[in-house]
Design goal:
130 residues; mainly alpha
């Protein structure tokens, strides 16, 4: 009788492959579940509810994209708020990302073309970055 390697025997056993896959990916199960419960499902429900006319006193009535049409074409305050939000996001995301990257660029000694990018991101603090 031919002897198989222990790894092959495990893979050939009933459910062996699935067991190996489960062992590897079971670490992520809680994170993926939390992602779906707290992010994906609420976003999908919000998108579905945004397509209805719902005032919490009556049953929702499907209106399709009418709410979005009214929001983008008839509401001046929304467009102003959207512009202010985009400016806020861009400014604060860049201010949160820029210092670590400038530190990375100044603390490494790369011999490549991207060094110019890192040096251009370095703030004018000669005491902090000699």
């Amino acid at each position: 009788m031919k002897q198989h390697s222990p790894l092959l025997c495990t893979a050939l056993s009933v459910g062996g492959v699935l067991e190996q896959i489960w062992d590897r990916y079971s670490v992520f199960y809680a994170d993926v579940r939390s992602l779906f419960v707290f992010v994906v499902f609420p976003v999908l429900i919000s998108i579905g509810m945004s397509l209805t006319n719902y005032d919490m006193l009556q049953t929702p009535q499907f209106v399709g994209l009418e709410n979005y049409k009214q929001l983008f074409l008839d509401d001046e305050i929304f467009l102003t708020a959207l512009k202010n939000t985009m400016i806020f996001v861009v400014v604060f995301i860049l201010s949160a990302i820029w210092p670590p990257f400038s530190w990375l660029g100044s603390s490494t000694n790369w011999e490549c073309g991207s060094c110019l990018l890192w040096r251009s991101m370095r703030p004018p603090l000669p005491a902090a970055w000699p």
